[in-house]
């Protein structure tokens, strides 16, 4: 099948900037639109979802995702709402949940459905908390309001969330999907979040050698 590479640098700006660009919203599709744009517009990390014949892979859903959403997004910078609705209808049928076509969902629910149940992809993350390991496809940032964080960046949010939840990454993930703090219509924890173009996960890795903040040698204790 046809394929178009992800958009980079000047090409990304040229193709994606302006009116009638991105993924057109319709019937509470914002959670899915934002997730699909993030996963595919400017990165090829998850392109295996579009081509690889996974064990449980539903080829119809895979072709809709590739031919009606990702390829048009990368080629013209625009995806019409009808294409996303076509995918939502298939997810409703496969996921046995009638509200995928009209209700707002948690992005994690969408990712788990399409990656695990429909395409059969192995989990992307291995986390450890309290000696127990768990596999998942994305990480949602949970944290209490902190007054010293007015306009945080992603690095700060991930580090503080892992610290407060006593979490560690068991291994370096091939793809680290991070969901920003949730908020409702009446309350926003942060008015803005600055994207971190690079993420340092040294302090998040289990049993990773780290530098002492006092002397610079390999640390033996963690505060």
TrEMBL record:
It holds the Pfam family UCH. Keywords: Cytoplasm, Hydrolase, Microtubule. One of its GO terms (biological process) is protein deubiquitination. Gene3D superfamilies: Cysteine proteinases (3.90.70.10). It is found in: Cytoplasm, Cytoskeleton, Spindle. One of its GO terms (molecular function) is cysteine-type deubiquitinase activity. GO terms for cellular component: microtubule; spindle. Residues 22-201 form the Peptidase C19 ubiquitin carboxyl-terminal hydrolase domain. This is CYLD hydrolase. It comes from Chloroceryle aenea.
């Amino acid at each position: 099948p046809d394929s178009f590479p992800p958009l980079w640098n000047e090409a990304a700006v040229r193709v994606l900037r302006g009116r009638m660009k991105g993924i057109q919203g319709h019937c509470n599709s914002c959670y899915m639109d934002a997730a699909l744009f993030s996963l595919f517009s400017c990165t090829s990390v998850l392109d295996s979802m579009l081509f690889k014949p996974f064990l449980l892979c539903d080829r119809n859903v895979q072709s809709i995702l590739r031919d009606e959403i990702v390829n048009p997004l990368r080629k013209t910078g625009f995806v019409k709402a009808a294409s996303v609705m076509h995918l939502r209808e298939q997810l409703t049928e496969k996921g046995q949940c009638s509200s995928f076509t009209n209700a707002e969902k948690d992005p994690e629910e969408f990712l788990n459905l399409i990656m695990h149940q429909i395409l059969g992809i192995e989990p992307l993350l291995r986390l450890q908390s309290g000696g127990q390991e768990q596999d998942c496809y994305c990480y949602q940032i949970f944290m209490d309001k902190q007054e010293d964080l007015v306009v945080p960046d992603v690095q700060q949010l991930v580090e503080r969330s892992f610290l407060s939840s006593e979490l560690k990454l068991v291994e370096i993930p091939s793809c680290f999907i991070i969901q920003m703090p949730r908020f409702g219509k009446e309350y926003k924890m942060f008015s803005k979040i600055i994207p971190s173009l690079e993420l340092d996960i040294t302090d998040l890795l289990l049993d990773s050698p780290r530098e002492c903040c006092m002397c610079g040698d390999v640390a033996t204790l963690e505060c």
